Amino acid sequence: MDIISLPVEIDETKIDGRYRLVMISAQRAKELSYGAKPKIQTKSKKVTTIAIEEAIQDKLEFLVGEEARKAKEEAKKFDYRKMLEEKKKEATPEELTELEKDLKVYLHEKETMDKKALKELFGDKQEEGAEE
Description:
With 132 residues, the protein is an all-alpha fold. The protein is 64% helix and 0% strand. Among the domains are: 18-63, no CATH class; 93-131. It has helices spanning 18-33, 47-56, 65-77, 80-90, 98-131. The radius of gyration is 27 Å and the shape is elongated.
């Protein structure tokens, strides 16, 4: 099924217009691109096409009207940074990924090298100032 080249028929009772279809599909395509599993079996490979097919087949849930406004306000109140900081505090060193461990080693080595470089650059000047 070549969904893009065919006129898309939507159920007017579920999706009230093409704009809504585009908005729902765009949000779902973003989720799919981040690794979400498709909710339908399809031959399509592109996330946008899969998202449109899911929306047309009524496999996606979405909010409209006052419910959508309330959900949007609640989402604004939620502080993702605070949640991530709390999760990091809870994490033990055993839970750190290999990449995080490598990064810590790299930063430690870089700090050591920077201190040596500063000592080499300014160490001679400090010794000369001490002799005078």
